[in-house]
Amino acid sequence: MKRHLLEAGDLDRVDATLVLDTAAQIEAALTGREVKKLPTLRGRTVVNLFYEDSTRTRISFELAAKRLSADVINFSAKGSSVSKGESLKDTALTLEAMGSDAIVIRHGASGAPHQLASWVRGSVVNAGDGTHEHPTQALLDAYTIRRRLGRLEGVRVAIVGDVLHSRVARSNVVLLHTLGAEVTLIAPPTLLPVGIGSWPAEVSYDLDAVLPKVDVVMMLRVQAERMTASFFPSAREYSRRYGLDARRMAVLGDEAIVMHPGPMNRGMEIAADVADSVRSTIVEQVGNGVSVRMAVLYLLLGGAPS
Ligand code: NCD
After folding, report:
1. From the annotation, which residues make up the binding site?
2. 90, 17: one domain
3. Same-domain check for residues 291 and 278
4. How far, in Å, CA of 211 to CA of 126, rounded?
5. Are the CB atoms for 65 and 297 separated by under 8 Å?
6. Whether the predicted pLDDT of 305 surpasses 60
7. Residues 108 and 169 both lie in one domain
8. Do 129 and 139 lie in a common domain?
9. What is the rounded CA–CA span in Å between residue 21 and residue 288?
């Protein structure tokens, strides 16, 4: 493993598999235990540095570090000296001076975690940077697929929706390709990034044509907060062409699963009855996120096995 986890490309197949296997071992070790805690990172300090809003990812990293017995500092830009204009560099150096061993960062600027990694001695974990990457989300998605379908090699995955603004899509395409899955991206042409042809994935504009052929459908949130222009005529039109409703779900193969990284726009990219159906792994993804992030922190901080 490298010292940092900045993007999905930092993991080759061996490392990525090691993270998934370690997560499975951690999960097995904690199942049925009354005290869901391992002593592995006792005496180590993990800082969660969040410059952008987050529910799942922030809580998940906090819980992951706590379950490994690390000391955890949660730092959010709101209410800190960032609002007095303190730079990312000075903030990071301050945190390191106080003894942090790892910094988990979410930032609105693509590339911020790379910058941070050049300034600090500890490990940096990217928890989402702008529209760039979100590697631990891709890991927890891969973990969820492997757990549900028993494999990743040859699994056919459709990633549907706002690919343009999605760090989740970017990280998933890279990681799933590394792990031998076949990805098709489905979106209106306006929501695909320039240069999509060089991604290791197929591209389609036709959701109905692809659905019967896939094992996994991963729906992406329409990221209205990142949209500076109008990318589709109306919410209704978007949902009609690219939303997953019960009618569309019915054409999926028997074993196929439906994923979403959250937060969802129910009724827009995914219908409520689909999100709550037995095919949906949405709640499972959240639970798996804790085990996967425990594995990442454990492997990066090199804690000895307990
Ligand atoms: C994603 C994110 O923030 O990139 N959510 C998450 O981490 N679970 C996806 C999104 O915001 O749509």
Report:
1. 56-57, 84, 106, 134, 137, 167, 221, 262-263
2. yes
3. no
4. 31
5. yes
6. no
7. no
8. no
9. 12
Do 126 and 224 belong together in one domain? no
Helix segments in the chain, DSSP class H: 13-30, 56-67, 88-97, 112-119, 135-149, 167-178, 207-210, 235-242, 246-249, 272-275, 282-301
For the question of whether the overall pTM of this predicted structure is more than 0.85, the answer is yes
Instruction: Convert 216-248 into a string of H (helix), E (strand) and C (coil).
Output: EEEECCCCHHHCCCCCCCCHHHHHHHHCECHHH
- In contact, 172 and 134? CB cutoff 8 Å: no
d(Cα 19, Cα 98) in Å, to the nearest integer?
A: 29
Query: Does 229 score more than 80 pLDDT?
Result: no
Distances (CA, A) of 140 to 27, 133, 288: 13, 14, 6
Between CA 273 and CA 252 the distance in angstroms is: 15
Q: Which amino acid is at 67?
A: R
**Residue type (1 letter), 152:** L
Q: Are residues 153 and 279 in the same domain?
A: yes
The more confident residue out of 93 and 138 is 138
Q: How far apart are CA 34 and CA 42, in angstroms?
A: 19
In whole angstroms, what is the distance from residue 200 CA to residue 8 CA? 13
- Examine the residue annotation and report whether 57 is marked as an active-site residue of this protein: yes
264 within 8 A of 270, measured Cβ to Cβ:
yes
CA–CA separation, 184 and 164 (whole Å) = 14
Of 42, 60, 36, the closest CA to residue 50 belongs to 60
288, with CB counted inside 10 A (0-12, 13-18, 19+), is: buried
Is residue 114 flagged as an active site residue?
no
CA of 150 to the centre of ligand 1 (A): 25
Domain count, the chain: 2
Q: Is 221 in the pocket of ligand 1 (CB under 6 A)?
A: yes
In a domain, 306, yes or no: no
Predicted pLDDT of residue 303: 56
Lookup: tokens for 300: 């990066």
Neighbouring C-beta atoms of residue 204, cutoff 10 Å: 15
